Amino acid sequence: MPRGLFITIEGLDGSGKTTQIRRLAAWLRDFAPHGDPIVTRQPGGTPTGDRIRALVLDSRSTGLAPMAEMALMFADRVQAIAEVIQPALTEGKIVLCDRFTDSTEAYQGGGRQLGSAPVLELHRLVCSNLQPDLTLLLLPSLESSLERARRRNQRDIAKTGHDENRFEQEKDAFYSRVYQKYREIAAREPARVVLIEGDLSIEDVHEKIVEAVARRLPVQRSV
């Protein structure tokens, strides 16, 4: 059976990832002859991962050391690979994942200033160096992303009581480092990463995503 296709969507909180992954999944169901895609997210996507997500994103989780934060992200990722991603790929399915190791490199490597090297080495050791076939990197302006993310999280707290606001409390300098690290990743891996930047409309971003994904659909490797 041919191996499935592993697609990740990356970007700052507030970049529109959730909307675009939902639209891409719907497009794949309607127009691509590959069956329903598997949609997951990190952190989260498994029972263990959801517990890790609740810990690392809750603003009450103060004093978490950067290395501990990175280790928790990878613990979530290893479980997701074993429980969701690798089984789906083995079955020939398309996997859409909201965040993967690029997020750890950007947020912990860049934002927390741990550097790229420990992130990439840990990925090699514990994730068997599993790489996405395609990464869609959404980079609207830093200012608009942060404004949307902070507004959305305050709205979600008021509506659901769930607090995932820990990262949004970081200063703008943190997010500037995250933003620049994402750009470094895109420049380093142009064959994998499709950069979609600027304050585009939802429809314009979707069209660019569909164009990028459609080019990859025929390319599926054997297990």
Word description of this protein:
- It is a single chain.
- By secondary structure, the protein is α/β, with parallel strands linked by helices.
- It has one domain (5-216): P-loop containing nucleotide triphosphate hydrolases (Rossmann fold).
- Helix content is 56%, strand content 12%.
- It has eight helices and five strands; from the N terminus they run βαβααβααβααβα.
- The protein has helices spanning 17-31, 47-57, 66-90, 101-111, 116-126, 142-160, 172-188, 202-216, and strands at residues 5-11, 38-41, 94-98, 134-139, 193-197.
- The protein has a five-stranded parallel sheet with strand order 2-3-1-4-5, with helices on both faces.
- The longest helix is centred in the middle third of the chain and has 25 residues, at 66-90.
- The protein is globular and about 45 Å long.
- Residues 219-223 have low confidence and may be disordered.
Summarize the helices and strands and which ones pair or pack:
Elements: E1 5-11, H1 17-31, E2 38-41, H2 47-57, H3 66-90, E3 94-98, H4 101-111, H5 116-126, E4 134-139, H6 142-160, H7 172-188, E5 193-197, H8 202-216
Parallel strand pairs: 1-3, 1-4, 2-3, 4-5
Write a concise keyword list for the protein shown above.
single chain, 223 residues, alpha/beta, Rossmann fold, 5-stranded parallel sheet, disordered C terminus
Our count of domains comes out at 1
Q: Within the CATH hierarchy, at the fold level, what is the topology?
A: Rossmann fold
Could you give the count of β-strands? 5
- The number of distinct helices, counting runs of at least 4 residues, comes to 8
pLDDT under 50 segments (min length 5)?
Answer: 219-223
Strand order of the largest sheet: 2-3-1-4-5
* CATH C-level label: Alpha Beta
Question: Which of globular, elongated, flat, extended, rod-shaped describes the shape?
Answer: globular
Approximately how much helix is present in the residues?
Answer: 55-70%
